[in-house]
Amino acid sequence: MEIINQQLQGPNTRSFFEGPYFTTQHKGAQNPAYMTDPDVEEFENWNQAAHGMIRKIAVAPEREGSIEFIRALTNRGITVALGHSNATLAQATAAVEAGATVFVHTFNGMSPFNHRE
């Protein structure tokens, strides 16, 4: 990683980790066989393998453990996005309150708005 950083002529490159913490209802091109609930230790293992380059991740806030996961990652300086989700307004609001700040695939990989919710 030091060698890469020495060769860069600007800001360090960072990675966006999309998946596998999504809902199968809005999986997009993701393989549903790999979808699972968020796990901080699993993420840390991936980020360590990526030499700490993962700085943003997308999750579906309705997955079990998502709120705790979002809090843990935002406390580490990781940007959390909501996407590939079938979350209710209450679930999405809880995720934002926990620290999620970005939405991906808005109005595409998500459940539609409902005026009755």
Structural domain tally: 1
Number of strands: 4
Low-confidence stretches: none
Q: What is the percentage of strand-forming residues?
A: 5-15%
Total of DSSP H or I helical runs spanning 4+ residues? 4
Helix- and strand-based class? Answer: alpha/beta
Order of helices and strands: HEHEHEHE
What is the arithmetic mean of pLDDT? 82
Radius of gyration: 15 Å
The geometry reads as globular
* Helix content, binned percent: 25-40%
Q: Biggest sheet, open or closed, and with what strands and sense?
A: 4 strands, parallel
Give the terminus-to-terminus CA distance: 47 Å
Question: What does this protein structure show overall?
Answer:
The protein is an alpha/beta fold and 117 residues long. The protein is built from 4 helices and 4 strands; from the N terminus they run H-E-H-E-H-E-H-E. The protein has one domain. 31% of the residues lie in helices and 14% in strands. Strand 2, helix 3 (66-75) and strand 3 form a beta-alpha-beta unit.
Q: Summary?
A:
By secondary structure, the protein is of the alpha/beta class. The protein is built from four helices and four strands; from the N terminus they run αβαβαβαβ. It has one domain.
Provide key terms for this protein:
117 residues, alpha/beta
List the helices and strands and how they pair.
Blueprint: H1 2-7, E1 15-18, H2 40-49, E2 54-59, H3 66-75, E3 79-82, H4 89-98, E4 102-103
Parallel strand pairs: 1-2, 2-3, 3-4
